[in-house]
């Protein structure tokens, strides 16, 4: 995990493997900031969808029991939204390095689309 201080707040950057371990241990809330279409085509099982287009940092859940980790396709949008959350008053937030692409590159499991039927299918 990489940590960066921004105006007294903390932005953490987690690897896909760190996110997977914390998700399995139920230590985090993973929030996908991609579009609904991207999410429907393939997503990390258990990730909540809060698209960047509708992102309101004030609506994020508290982090008393679980940390929040944001992710997108490559890490660019999630880092941007994490910084928005810090500007809105969050004292600490995280995002996933490399985004969903990094997750797939690490060969971690996800829910994709079975192209022959259009049905969801566990992949990875």
Shape: globular
Question: In DSSP terms, counting alpha (H) and pi (I) runs of 4 or more, how many helices?
Answer: 4
Q: What is the overall pLDDT average?
A: 96
Count all strands and give the number: 8
Kindly identify the CATH topology: Oxidized Rhodanese, domain 1
Helix and strand pattern: EEHEHEEHEHEE
Strand residue percentage: 25-35%
Q: What is the percent of helical residues?
A: 25-40%
Q: Roughly how many Å apart are the termini?
A: 23 Å
Protein name: Rhodanese domain-containing protein
InterPro entries: Rhodanese-like_dom, Rhodanese-like_dom_sf
Pfam families: Rhodanese
GO molecular function, one term: thiosulfate-cyanide sulfurtransferase activity
Please tell me about this protein's structure:
With 124 residues, this protein is of the alpha/beta class. It has a single domain (2-123), classed as Oxidized Rhodanese, domain 1 (3-Layer(aba) Sandwich). The chain is built from four helices and eight strands; from the N terminus they run ββαβαββαβαββ. The protein has helices at 16-24, 36-41, 76-87, 99-105; strands spanning 2-6, 9-14, 28-32, 48-49, 67-71, 92-96, 110-113, 120-123. Helix 3 (76-87) links the parallel strand 5 and strand 6 (92-96). The two termini are 23 Å apart.
Topology (SSEs and partners):
Layout (H helix, E strand, L loop, with lengths): L1 E5 L2 E6 L1 H9 L3 E5 L3 H6 L6 E2 L17 E5 L4 H12 L4 E5 L2 H7 L4 E4 L6 E4 L1
């Amino acid at each position: 995990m990489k940590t960066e201080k921004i105006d007294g707040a903390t932005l953490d950057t987690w690897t896909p493997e760190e996110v997977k371990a914390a998700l399995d241990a139920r230590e985090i809330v993973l929030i996908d900031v991609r579009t609904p279409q991207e999410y429907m085509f393939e997503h990390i099982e258990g990730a909540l969808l809060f698209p960047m287009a509708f992102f309101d940092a004030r609506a994020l859940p508290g982090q008393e029991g679980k940390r929040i980790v944001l992710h997108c396709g490559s890490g660019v949008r999630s880092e941007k939204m994490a910084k928005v959350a810090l500007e809105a008053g969050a004292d600490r937030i995280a995002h996933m390095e490399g985004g969903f692409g990094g997750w797939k590159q690490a060969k971690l499991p996800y829910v994709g689309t079975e192209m022959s039927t259009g049905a969801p299918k566990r992949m990875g």
